[in-house]
Amino acid sequence: MEQKLSLIQLEDISFGYPNCGLVLSNLSLNVSKGDRIALLGGNGVGKTTLFHIILGLIRPFTGSIKLFGRECLKETDFREPRKKIGLLFQDPDDQLFSPSVIEDVSFGPLNLGMSRKEAIRVSRQCLERLGIAHLEKRVPYELSGGEKKLVALAAVMAMKPRILLLDEPMAGLEMKAVERFFSAIQDEDIDAFIIITHLPNLIKHMVNRTLVMENGGLKPKPLGFSS
Questions:
Q1: Would you place residue 1 in the very low, low, confident or very high pLDDT band (cuts 50, 70, 90)?
Q2: Helix 175-187 and helix 145-157, axial crossing angle in degrees, nearest 10
Q3: Residues 162, 84: contact at Cβ < 8 Å?
Q4: Residue 79, φ and ψ in degrees, nearest 5
Q5: pLDDT digits (tens, 9 = 90+) for 114-123
């Protein structure tokens, strides 16, 4: 049997915030090519913290991080992997900062070295795929919460990531927007994704693994969950 390519390997990760004790305790995670993972758990258990540790935005007290087969020990080790991992923040206001939607979406591709013409072309494709091409010239802070979420997703998709880390992407979306989101994610040429959600039944048809975070660690949950 062909061995799956390991994209993310976390071993014995521990981390905590001041006056809060450990949030993550000896946590291990392996994400391989083809994984479509739902990450469940209550508020404050460390799901978003886990995403930030994967990207090197915060550093664990203990443990090791390997991304695409290479160990990441210092800031410079994370720079190349970050270009291949798209993070959708829970709050899109943390992700949108440009004076127009098209400038926000094209910001990442431009930073990856695309010409302005190519970055705009790719960005318009992403907006069209999500059904929000009409928002191209709008000011992001004037959009509704659901529209902001879709624009933030377009900005992530425009960078052509190999892995998506999606933090509560369906929060604030109407059902039609959720359907567009699902369609875009399924059509996207990515190697793996992890999606944090409190609505597991809504996405169980698009995942092949489910993990629950509790007591600082991760445990698998059968795909046939009902709550």
A1: very low
A2: 0
A3: yes
A4: -65, -45
A5: 999 999 999 9
Distance in angstroms (rounded) separating the CA atoms of residues 227 and 28? 24
The reported pTM is 0.91
Alpha carbons 61 and 58: distance in angstroms, whole number:
10
Average pLDDT, integer, range 200-218: 89
Single-letter residue type at 129 = R
- Element (DSSP H or E) covering residue 166: strand 163-167
Contact between 151 and 128 (Cβ < 8 Å): no
Element (H, E) at 119: helix 116-129
On the question of pLDDT at 78 being above 50, the answer is yes
Beta bridge partners of residue 21, listed in sequence order: 17
Both tokens of residue 72? 């990441």
